């Protein structure tokens, strides 16, 4: 491939991954793979300078400011570093520095390269005034309020006596500790929200939240590693500046080392490489900087990076080992995740004996079998994963893996839905998924138990106050014990217990939805409750009988029948009935009225009504609300930002009305 064509291809690839990383916080490739692409482009452009264009990824630092935040122009450019991947490149760097400075005894500092989001912190007379992201190095984003939520960002500096500090700007790296990252992803999974790819991705996404309270909940941290601008004091070395920052109250670059030779630098880089798997934070390299600030000034920078520093990037470590077994772990959402049991192997500083296999498709695509010799690495240097098989070492009796049909924790059927990669336990009493079952049961559209959020559920489960959904209704007998718990006061406990008691009176439809059968949403639960009137009648119904419910298809009917006949579901409902939870439908659709025989479909956002309010108005007047448009649809009530339902209504010639017309039809 000729150079011009390859350069164009690399630019397109790098720009794509830049957007996934910087704008969308959703990287698709490992940092090392990205760095190799960038390095290849850099080398090709250096050999063919006539092909360099202003829009090449090599001509800028990287990233863009997000429009949701005010832009900040950096007085001192927040440069990126040139990467090196080999020891020979470090010797080349040392040689260039000595030749350019005429100094054969250059002192270096080696720092761990923390993998997070680079930020600027500005202080006036010791008071924190503004914080911003790096953005493209020249223009960043104002994230002051979010940075204030990080406890290691000092809001007032401890300025030593005799020193005036009218202005100070420092640069640091916001990051998330490995443990906090794993805890966050566990919470994301429990709430059925998107998981973060790695701690850096999580830190970036958390710092750029529009709601600072979300940032505050994410346990971010920061290391400060450079003075960008300062008034009132001068320094001769970077190490001197770092010690001053520590005195001011900053959490500085951890365990940096001053080295008098490039050999000492290389030894320190090897040492960091050996221990980085045991560090509480993620690091993908080591930064080598000249310690002397006057020498830095002398060397200056290129258009995109300083000449006085480089970043040594560690190659992701991959090793072969024996896959002894595949075991199933059940997560809080009921997801069954296959895990490899490995012959212990030393990887990225720690001994690894287990690794994730993600899901059934992952195993099939790579044809991974028990007894195989497999390649293992740590994704993001944290989570061990199997990445491939050495087929030449496969034993003859190795057989393909099959996901279990029943949950290994509780024995309930384990099902995989169409177009999903995950197999899930369906047992409502399964200890592994109990948190998620209770969270859904208490949600607003289900039993609407106010005050029973994720943190309270976690605490009640951890302390052994509840072991199933019905136990919620026994908490009134443990009031004093609840009040004694951390974060629980008399008033909050009283409100919670009242809300739990009140939930007993809910309509049957809320209970059906709250039990969490697959495919049964709020609307389906309402229709089922109206059709069968009582929980006993619904539980006694066959799939064919359930399918007669309006808008129910075969899949929904079979799912609900199977769920209600499960031993765990029967037991839970029996206990709920004993504790006085309502098992009958109280809401009856009016059979006659001005909308009798009419079917409405709602789409978009209405000016004054919520969908629930509009639905209630329709049903009180004898009408029906459907979730999809068909030839049988009488009216489509369309609001702002109406989508595909509006398009389909126009195609089928269904009458479209707005809220004003709807009000007139209702007689309002």
Q: Please identify which CATH superfamily of the largest domain we are dealing with.
A: DNA ligase/mRNA capping enzyme
Q: How many strand units?
A: 22
The chain-level mean pLDDT equals 90
Low-confidence stretches: none
Structural class: alpha+beta
CATH class category name of the largest domain: Alpha Beta
Shape: globular
Query: Main sheet, how many strands, which sense, barrel?
Result: 7 strands, antiparallel
Task: Give the N-to-C terminal Cα separation.
Answer: 72 Å
CATH architecture of the largest domain: 2-Layer Sandwich
Note the total helix count: 24
Instruction: Please state the CA-atom Rg, rounded to the nearest Å.
Output: 31 Å
The share of residues in extended strands comes to 15-25%
Helix content range: 25-40%
CATH topology of the largest domain: D-amino Acid Aminotransferase, Chain A, domain 1
What number of domains? 5
Structural commentary:
- The structure is a single chain.
- The chain has about 675 residues and is of the alpha+beta class.
- The chain has five domains: about 5-60, Orthogonal Bundle (Helix Hairpins), CATH 1.10.287.610; about 70-185 and about 195-315, D-amino Acid Aminotransferase, Chain A, domain 1 (2-Layer Sandwich), CATH 3.30.470.30; about 320-395, OB fold (Dihydrolipoamide Acetyltransferase, E2P); about 425-585, 5' to 3' exonuclease, C-terminal subdomain (DNA polymerase, domain 1, Orthogonal Bundle); about 600-665, BRCT domain (Rossmann fold).
- Helix content is about 35%, strand content about 20%.
- The protein contains 24 helices and 22 strands.
- Strands 12, 13, 14, 15, 16, 17 and 18 form a seven-stranded antiparallel β-sheet that branches. A five-stranded mixed β-sheet has the order 2-11-10-3-9. The protein has a four-stranded antiparallel β-sheet with strand order 5-4-7-8.
- Strand 12 (about 320-330) and strand 13 (about 335-345) form a beta hairpin.
- Helix 1 packs antiparallel against helix 2 and helix 16 (about 510-515) packs across helix 17 (about 520-530).
- The protein is globular.
């Amino acid at each position: 491939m000729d150079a011009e064509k390859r350069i164009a291809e690399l630019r397109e690839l790098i720009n794509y991954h830049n957007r996934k990383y910087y704008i969308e916080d959703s990287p698709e490739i490992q940092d090392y793979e990205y760095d190799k692409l960038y390095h290849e482009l850099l080398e090709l452009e250096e050999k063919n300078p006539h092909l360099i264009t202003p829009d090449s990824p090599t001509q800028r630092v990287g990233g863009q400011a997000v429009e949701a935040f005010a832009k900040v122009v950096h007085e001192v450019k927040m440069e990126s570093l040139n990467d090196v991947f080999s020891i020979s490149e470090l010797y080349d760097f040392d040689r260039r520095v000595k030749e350019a400075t005429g100094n054969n005894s250059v002192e270096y500092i080696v720092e761990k390269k923390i993998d997070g989001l680079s930020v600027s912190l500005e202080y006036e007379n010791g008071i924190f005034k503004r914080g911003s992201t790096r953005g493209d190095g020249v223009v960043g984003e104002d994230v002051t309020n979010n940075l204030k939520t990080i406890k290691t960002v000092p809001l007032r500096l401890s300025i030593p006596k005799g020193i005036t500090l009218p202005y100070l700007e420092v640069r640091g790296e916001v990051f998330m500790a490995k443990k906090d990252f794993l805890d966050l992803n566990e919470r994301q999974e429990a709430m059925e929200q998107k998981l973060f790819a790695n701690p850096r991705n999580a830190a970036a996404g958390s710092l750029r939240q529009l709601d600072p309270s979300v940032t505050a909940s994410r346990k971010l941290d920061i290391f400060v590693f450079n003075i960008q601008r300062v008034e009132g004091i001068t320094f001769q070395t970077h190490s001197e500046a770092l010690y001053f920052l520590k005195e001011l109250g900053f959490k500085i670059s951890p365990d940096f080392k001053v080295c008098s030779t490039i050999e000492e630098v290389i030894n320190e880089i090897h040492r960091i490489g050996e221990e980085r798997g045991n560090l509480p934070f993620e690091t993908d390299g080591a930064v080598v900087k000249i310690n002397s600030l006057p020498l830095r000034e002398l060397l200056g920078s290129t258009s995109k990076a300083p000449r006085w520093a480089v970043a040594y990037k560690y190659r992701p470590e991959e090793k072969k080992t024996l896959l002894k077994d595949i075991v199933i772990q059940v997560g809080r959402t009921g997801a069954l995740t296959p895990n490899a049991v490995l012959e212990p192997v030393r990887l990225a500083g720690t001994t690894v004996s287990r690794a994730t296999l993600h899901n059934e498709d992952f195993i099939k695509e790579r044809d991974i079998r028990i007894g195989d010799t497999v390649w293992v690495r740590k994704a993001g240097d944290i989570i061990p994963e199997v990445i491939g098989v050495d087929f030449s070492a496969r034993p003859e009796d190795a057989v393909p893996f099959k996901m279990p049909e029943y949950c290994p924790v509780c024995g309930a059927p384990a099902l995989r839905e169409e177009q999903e990669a995950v197999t899930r336990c369906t047992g409502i009493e399964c200890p592994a998924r109990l948190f998620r079952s209770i969270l859904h049961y208490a949600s607003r559209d289900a039993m609407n138990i106010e005050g029973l959020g994720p943190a309270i559920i976690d605490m009640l489960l951890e302390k052994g106050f509840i072991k199933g959904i019905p136990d919620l209704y026994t908490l009134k007998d443990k009031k004093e014990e609840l009040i004694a718990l951390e974060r629980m006061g008399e008033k909050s406990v009283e409100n919670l217990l009242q809300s739990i008691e009140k939930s007993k009176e809910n309509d049957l439809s809320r209970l059906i939805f709250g039990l969490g059968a697959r495919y049964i949403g709020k609307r389906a639960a309402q229709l089922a409750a109206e059709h069968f009137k009582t929980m006993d009648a619904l539980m006694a119904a066959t799939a064919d009988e359930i399918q007669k419910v309006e808008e129910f298809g075969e899949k929904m009917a079979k799912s609900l029948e199977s769920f209600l006949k499960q031993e765990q579901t029967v037991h839970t409902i029996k206990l709920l009935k004993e504790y006085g939870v309502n098992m009958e439908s109280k809401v009856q659709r009016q059979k006659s009225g001005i909308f009798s025989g009419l079917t409405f479909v709602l789409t978009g956002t209405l000016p004054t009504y919520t969908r629930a309010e509009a639905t209630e108005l329709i049903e009180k007047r004898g009408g029906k609300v459907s979730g999809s448009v068909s030839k049988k649809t009488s009216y489509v009530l369309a609001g702002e930002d109406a989508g595909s339902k509006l398009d389909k209504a126009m195609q089928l010639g269904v009458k479209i009305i707005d809220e004003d017309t709807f009000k007139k039809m209702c007689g309002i």
